[in-house]
Design a protein that fits this description.
Elements: H1 6-34, H2 36-61, H3 66-94, H4 96-115, H5 123-139, H6 141-185, H7 189-230, H8 236-245
Helix pairs in contact: 2-3, 2-6, 2-7, 3-8, 7-8
Amino acid sequence: MAIKSHPLDKAAGWSWRLLVILGLAAVLVFLVIQLKVIVIPFLVALLVTALLFPVVSRLKRKGVKNGLAVAISLLMLVTVVSGLVFLVVRQTTSAYPELSERAQSSFTQLQGFLAAEPFNIEPADLERSASDFLSTLQSSDFLTSGLVSSVGSTASHVVAGIFLTIFAVLFLLLDGKTIWKWFVRLLPKTSQQKVADACVDGWRTLISFVKSQLAVAGVDAVGIGLGALILQVPLAIPIAVMVFLG
C-alpha cells in the first residue's frame, strides 16, 4: 500500500527554505556586527538626512541651489547642536562650586550616618579605606592601561563615526536620488517599480518618524526641565538640554 508523502514533502520544502532564510539572516547580522563602524554611522546619517531633507527641499523650492541649500541646512544643524552643548558646558561650569559644596555636605552627612548605631564606622576609617582603594586602582597597571586603551579606542571610533556620518549625509542630501535610482536599476526590471514605490513610502514614513521624535524630545525636555526647576534641582537647564539631545 503506497504511503502519501505530500505533507512530508511540503514540510521538507518549508524546512530547507526556512533554514536558508535563517542562514542569510545570520550572515547579515554577522556582517553588520563586523562592519558596525560603517553601518552605524550610515544608519545615523539616514536619520539626519531625513531630518534635514524637508529643510533642503524648502530652500530649493525658494530658488536656492542644491549645494547651497545642503550647506545652509548642515550649518543650521551644527549651530543648534553646538549652541546647546555650549549651554550645557557653561551652565555646568558655573554651577560647579555649588555642586562641590553640596557633594562635600552630603559626604559629611554620610560619615555621620555611618558613625552612628548600628554601623559605628569612624570617619577616619572610612577615609583610610577610600584612600587605600584609590591607591590600589592607581597602582594597578593592568587596569589603568586597559582603561586608557578602551577610552582611546572608543574615542577614535566616535570621531571616525562622526566624520563618516557627515560624509554620508552630504552624499545623501546632494545626490541621494541618483544613488537610489542606480541601485534600483540593479534589480530585475519586473521588481524595479514596486521596490521604488515601496521605498518612497518608507522614506516618507522615516521623515514623519524623525519629526515625531523631534516633537517628543521637545515635550520631554520642556516637561523635565520645568519639573527640575520647580523641585529646585541643580543644573535643571542642562538636564533638559541633554534630555532633548538624547
